[in-house]
Amino acid sequence: MTDLSSRERMLGAITHRKADYVPCAFMSFTALRRRCHDDRHEQVRAERAMGLDSFLFVPALSRADRPNHPDLRGLPVRFHPDVETREWREGVPGGDGILHKEYTTPGGRLQTSVCLSEDWPHGDHIPFVDDYQAPRARQHLLTGQAGELAALRYLLTPPHAEDVAAFQREAQKAHAFTKDQGVLLAGGWGVGVDMANWLCGFENLMVLAHEKPDFVAELLEIIHQWNLQRMKVVLSGGVDLLIHRAWYEGCDFVTPNFYREAMLPRLKVEVALAHEAGALYGYICSSGLTPLLDFFLEAGVDVLIGIDPVQGTHTDLATIKKRIGSRICLWGGVSGAITVELGTEGEVRTAVRQAIETLGPDSFILSPVDNITVDNAKTSRNVDVFLEEWQRTR
User: Fold this and answer.
1) CA–CA separation, 390 and 256 (whole Å)
2) How far apart (Å, rounded) are the C-alpha atoms in residues 55 and 6?
3) How far from chain centre, in Å, is Cα 294?
4) What is the pLDDT of residue 29?
5) What does the pLDDT read at residue 167?
6) Cα 182 from Cα 9, distance rounded (Å)
7) 0.90 exceeded by the pTM?
8) Per-residue pLDDT tens for 148-166?
9) What pLDDT, on the 0 to 100 scale, is given for residue 93?
10) Residue 2: what pLDDT?
């Protein structure tokens, strides 16, 4: 077991086979990616040079190249060709103003607006879906009114033929690269309730689930069918791991009953689709986990990504390991934003040891959760300390 490739080590952890040592693969490493000029291949090489068990993600469309969905990685999100959009700014005395956007579709008209602030990153543009947009929305795109979902269908269209062809070419090159580097090939992102939260607003979606359950049920089914179409394209590329983003699917945002009734059946379909294509299924959720662990088991999730013991709620490491750790691989274990970016060297060492001792050694992938974004001397030193402590356990 001492001659495993990085890919073999990662697949071994996810499928519960003993490996030579606990793999370490950063879920996301934005600080390093910026140094690599957003070149994913260069980033993989840099991570491998650091000793990390890196992976390549496809499609690799950069954030700058997806202005309408900066927080949704994956295939481009394109509208029906008959959709027209209009954006305008409204001045507000003593304020930064309000930005409006209107979508005119063959199925009807949708409108949203956001209250601008100094930290608004999109200029005079409102993305279709975005983390910045939801909490600043003066009016969300969907409010539960009759006719809204008919219009939404024209904004959630199947992948365009040219995007499918471009992905197939990218996947072919990705296979050659990952074979040469000996690393895992991951693809995605799948999306479900995160999309619903972006469209409706977090609090509003909770209210709608109680007051207009039929509207929410139809919305989730529209998103689900759209997501399955995108999944099929990514799975056709022969990825090792299909990843679903579910940061807003923990019990901080939904109740266990809602998860069981509205989300679990669709999760089962996604997992089955991935497995039929020969891919493993990864689920990124870093908070609100414990009440949902049995659902992850029932659905057949292969790896739960984003176990954060500091910022997450219901993320006690020992509890999660005991309840699902022999049947679902766990990926994470250390807070990136709190421990690695802000902590002392001693705190980093302690966190790495505790993560490996509690979640490892089998069926575990070590990582800061969710990301390392700060690029300064302190964080760089803490990353070195993180890796040193991990290497001591090998």
Assistant:
1) 35
2) 9
3) 21
4) 97
5) 98
6) 10
7) yes
8) 999 999 999 999 999 999 9
9) 77
10) 58
pLDDT in tens, 290-304: 999 999 999 999 999
What pLDDT score does 95 carry? Answer: 73
Residue bearing tokens 């179409």: 229
Domains, the chain, ordered by start:
6-76+154-392 (3.20.20.210)
The Cβ of residue 146 has, within 10 Å, a number of other Cβ atoms equal to 8
Long-range contacts of residues 256-264, Cβ cutoff 8 Å, at least 24 apart:
256/291, 256/292, 256/295, 258/209, 259/292, 259/295, 260/295, 262/209, 262/216, 262/217, 262/220, 263/192, 263/193, 263/220, 263/295, 264/295, 264/298, 264/299
Report the distance separating Cα 169 and Cα 156, nearest Å.
Answer: 24
The pair of three-digit structure tokens given for residue 245, joined into one six-digit string: 């983003």
**Residue labelled with tokens 């077991």:** 1
Count of C-beta atoms within a 10 Å radius of residue 296: 22
Task: Scan for tokens 């690799």, then name that residue.
Answer: 60
Q: What is the Cα–Cα distance from 124 to 250, expressed in whole angstroms?
A: 32
Helix residue spans in the chain (DSSP H): 6-14, 30-35, 40-49, 133-136, 148-152, 161-181, 193-200, 202-211, 213-235, 256-258, 264-276, 293-299, 317-324, 341-342, 345-359, 377-392
| Residue that has been written with the tokens 């795109």 in this structure | 141
Structure tokens at 9: 């080590």
* N-terminal to C-terminal alpha carbon distance within the chain: 12
Within 10 angstroms of residue 234's Cβ, the number of other Cβ atoms is: 26
- Secondary structure of residue 388 in the 3-state scheme: helix
Q: Is 390 helix (H, G, I), strand (E, B) or coil?
A: helix
pLDDT digits (tens, 9 = 90+) for 163-221: 999 999 999 999 999 999 999 999 999 999 999 999 999 999 999 999 999 999 999 99
Instruction: Spell out the SS3 assignment of 298-356.
Output: HHCCCEEEEECCCCCCCCCHHHHHHHHCCCCEEEEEEEHHHHHHHCCHHHHHHHHHHHH
Return d(Cα 154, Cα 55) in angstroms, integer.
34
- Two structure tokens written together for 315: 């993320």
User: Beta strands 108-115 and 137-139: pairing type?
Assistant: antiparallel
In the three-class reduction of DSSP (H, G, I as helix; E, B as strand; rest coil), residue 30 is classed as: helix
Q: Is the pLDDT of residue 243 over 90?
A: yes
